[in-house]
Amino acid sequence: MLRSTGESPLCSFGHIATHAELLRTFHGQESAIIPFRMGYGRTELLRMGVYICSHLTEEERLAAWCGGHLDCVTVLAGLGLPIAAPDHPHLRFRRGQRGAAARWRADAPLARVHWSGPRTRVPSLEATKRSARKGGLPDRLRMPWREALRQAMTTCLTYAESGELLAAMCDDGFAAEDLAHAITVAPRRVYVALLRLGAIPQDVQRIASEALEREHHS
Ligand SMILES: [Zn+2]
Ligand SMILES: [Zn+2]
Description:
Radius of gyration: 19 Å
Bound molecules: zinc ion
């Protein structure tokens, strides 16, 4: 989902920011926040004290509204990976996130919700702003793709779908590091099946087995 930064003053904040976060960023100067609140159609008040970019999709709005993040197959499909977009968005909440659960039950009962604690976190506001300054595409509405992949391969993709996805990533020229990560989160039997087929490049195999070894010892 490529977008230029600067569509709204909130894009460099990952498309969402609370009043408190903005105040912290601008050292408590209320006047500095006015452009974020009155974004001339480019920003909106999502709910009391939370601002979002107006360009958000329905799914992004839903995640923001519930206080969770888009996750799993929803994130992977949005990246153009060969995965069918699910009928209902997959969302991630932190365990025990009560407000989010209440809003989800009231407003999005059809969303598929995951409660697991992430290994790779959504970037903080500070990290998002650093990345925006370097021309990155910050996003605080969805889980990082590596984390979304782990979730999908653990819970929502069948072995066959995980295998097809991994094979497609190998064909698609993904960086070896990224492929190796995909292997470390894939079900073991999927990895072994692809190895037997000779579908995993040698350098990727090496990085993946080192990573698996580290994980085994940690
Ligand atoms: Zn934005
Ligand atoms: Zn899922």
